[in-house]
Amino acid sequence: MDHHHEDHDDGHSHDDGHSHDDGHSHGVAADADRRWLGLALGLIAVFMAAEVVVGLLAGSLALLSDAAHMLTDAGAIVLALVAMRLAARPPRGGYTFGLKRAEILSAQANGLTMLLLAVWLGVEAVQRLVHPPAVTGWPVLVTALAGILVNVAAAWAMSRANRSSLNVEGAFQHVLNDLFAFIATAVAGVIMVTTGFTRADPIATLVVVVLMIKAGLALVRASGRIFLEAAPPGIEPSALGTRLAGLPDVVEVHDLHVWEITSGEPALSAHVLVAEGGDCHAVRQAIEQLLRREYRITHSTLQVDHAGGDPAVPSGGEAGLDGADPHCTDPHGAMYRPAAT
């Protein structure tokens, strides 16, 4: 009878532990992602250069802000492409998970640059509201309409990539916000052409700023949760612990940790105590099946012990429900037990 299992060949099963059928894929799919991202990058770079020229000639802050936003779009896509290559490298040296979190660094950089750019554009827009400069309406309108088409094409190309990656999603949000920005700029162009109201240009810029702040905060918050190893969205650790403790023969679950290695790759570790006479292997397999089926967690490390005395426990401690557990590395963490019947 097995009293103690720290299963690195079973508890952290590599046959399913590294399955990426949950939407976070590499290999061929990653190559396809790079092609779609490359297409979007080409569209954005060419149009951005033309927009800067038109914006300077027309004196439009809205066009220049759109061009600046497109520059961050291009930067976001470049970071995404670089991070995808880094994440695909196999683990080596001290990087036992490889460089999978490179994409989270990229996503956080995308969010921060969007917020910084929004501050600068907001200040410029307020100044132009107070002292509106002369703006030529027709170039603004025509360029904005062309920008809408370019961003629709770029957004479509990026939607074909794997958006379960926070990195790709971050770059996609850049492009999507730029699409909304061009719509606001086109409306401003129509107003300036028909009424001569030049303050429509900085007002459109402020609309862009609001969109940028919203998207930037969402990216920083999502990437920050991963850096702080918070539970993935949609998984409540206390509910998960209670669910595991309710499985047959489980008498206690503690030292429970659930986090994301990178976006789309949740991981879990836990110490599970099994009733005397219970089958530790069967309990471990039941837990792994539950994690895969209901929580899509395929990376798990489970330490499974019987709840009574353990002959493998060194002197000075005894594993059990009523005594100190020398295997527990988080003695102040929550403990989950079956509901009283």
From TrEMBL:
Residues 237-306 form the Cation efflux protein cytoplasmic domain. Keywords: Ion transport, Membrane, Transmembrane, Transmembrane helix, Transport. Its main location: membrane. Pfam families: Cation_efflux (PF01545), ZT_dimer (PF16916). InterPro entries: Cation_efflux, Cation_efflux_CTD, Cation_efflux_CTD_sf, Cation_efflux_TM, Cation_efflux_TMD_sf, CDF/SLC30A. Residues 39-227 form the Cation efflux protein transmembrane domain. The keyword RNA-binding does not apply. It is a multi-pass membrane protein. Residues 1-27, 303-341 are annotated as: Disordered. Belongs to the cation diffusion facilitator (CDF) transporter (TC 2.A.4) family. SLC30A subfamily. This is Cation diffusion facilitator family transporter. It comes from Dactylosporangium salmoneum.
